[in-house]
Input
Amino acid sequence: MPEKIKGYMGEQLRISLNDKSYKIEKIDTKVLRDYLGGAGYAARVLYDEIPKGTDPLSPENKLMFTTSPLTANRIPGGGSIMLCFKSPQTNAWGESRCGGDFGPDLKKAGYDFLVIEGKSAEPVYLVINDDKIEFRSATGLMGKTVNEKLKIIRKELSDPKISVMCIGPAGEKLVKIATVMFEHRAAGRCGAGAVMGSKNLIGIAVKGSHKTPMAQPAKLTETIKTCLKILKESDFSTNLKKHGTTGDMAANDAAGDWPTKNWHANSWGKAEQIYHQFYNKHLVKNHGCYTGCPIACGRISEVKEGRFKTPAHEGSEYESLSAFTAFVLNENIEAAIQATYLCNEFGIDTISAGAIIAFAMECYENGILKKEEVGDIDLTWGNPAVLPELVRMISLREGIGDTLAEGVKIASERLGRGSEKYAIHGKGLEAPAHDPRSGKVLGVAYGTANRGMCHIHPLEGMAYDSGKMDWGLVKYGVPDPNTIDRWDEKGKGKIVKILQDGLILPDILNTCKFFMYAGIHIDHLAQLLSAVTGWKIDGQELLKIGERVMNLQRLFNMREGFHREDDLLPERMKQKPAFGFYENEDRCAIKDFEGMLDEYYQARSWDSKTGIPLKEKLLELALDE
Amino acid sequence: MKIKIKLYTILEKYAKGKVLKDNTIILPKATTLQGLSHCLNIPDKIGKVYLVNDLPQSKEYRLREGDEVKIFSFIGGG
Output
């Protein structure tokens, strides 16, 4: 029997949907020390277990729900779950985090990781209650919205509080941008919901009675106290509570970090007034995604009356509202709130949905999509009425929604007629609401991100270049951001390497990234991890693990055929903005992306022509199998 | 000289005791945006973006009577 490490439950639950069986497996402790948990541990498992060329929507793909030693309600930022899989949007590494109590509750049930394999012959949902594992018919859940499913599952289980993650109707229909939801929180990006739907797995309910063993309880309590003090004194923490992520809309617009009209521009000049309406008229209160969150940045909002009347719900975050305003040139915040709400109810990703609608609007403007092809709806830029309607059509694959449900990359390949240049994505994932024409670090981060152009990994781009945040990484080699000009290109490749190695750690440890913005840095994570596990682990070792995981995810992608030519930015993203605060400004343009990439590859010890990690780097990271 | 000023999110607190009720501030002639930030005691290390009369300007920009200044920083959400 392998030795059990404190902080872990020591077991993973492997579910085979083919025959509705399960196995409880002991976890290799050496793997835990090298990869910790979350997207790190999953990278090791999925690299080893998913064969090259696997169809992401076939039974051979695997879907993992992962926790870490820091997954616990009492640990600051410890309430989330990381889903990992091969993405049907990108055919590459896929991961998606979701805030909420599901992660802590999975550990209470006795499992660090959940591996879902195969495909059920009929729709089912899974119930995990300690070592009692049950497969229940989900026939009655089909076609129901997320909220309806949640209510039915809890009623069937006679447990109004049990943690449930489920897909919406979009996941059932294998919409490529489908999410897996925890109430109104989403594992949103990369199509986890389509993978779950392809397995005929509609939901998972979990509860348990175990306690996670801690190595040094007193030291842990002391470290938690230190972290809470930092959070209490942090302006970022206070403002995340007051304004949420939406509070950055006006600042990002002013900084040229607010992609507008399908990336024609990096600002619009309308964010201040749009946010003002949201904050003063529609924001109900803040809300924590998991029980005990000391920040609680979530937004509960509503539209009380009118054409876009929407009940109070959680979901209007920076990315969602930006996707349904700036992306599509819509000034009507009420339509944006309703579209966001519907995305969560149908179970599709708000960022991709807004980006897809922007793509469709540009195709419509240029005659690639004709009125009769889109069901006589008016896809003119900024038409608010079309937003909720298209969200529904994409989610249910109705009419043109069936093509758009594939995401912009595949949709543009199907439509042809020159639509490819309007499809703004990285590796197949639609770009989020941050713009590398505001700071060049983001350009390299976008181009090289393993899961494609996402809003989590490259978050550090704009926050470093414009926000001048360093997350305690200066001592590990990142230049002081105050000595860096955000418009410069030279030097940015090297910076991105260290930022990525550091800021992948919240994805490996399943801790909320916003806590890092509020002052919980790499060294604090190392202290928490040491107290929980009893390992002597420091920030330097964490960075090395971050680098190992970055490289292993990279290897996963390279095995699927990705190369240097896939580390790219869409042409429009490199050009001078067409309008806005920075109209036609030369400093916004990205002039030598290839040069930045060369520098980045050199810092990473990757082959400059192919982008493959060099043998000595793999040896150094113990990835030389 | 008198200029109009607005501070956002994490910078709002720096208005206290410096910015008048009508959202104006009195400054010596030709004060730069960096000088304005120092006057408001906004730490240098905080990232800032300036708009003057709705145009982006660098910290070296010299203010003029009647300018309308907006100073933004970032909470850091995504």
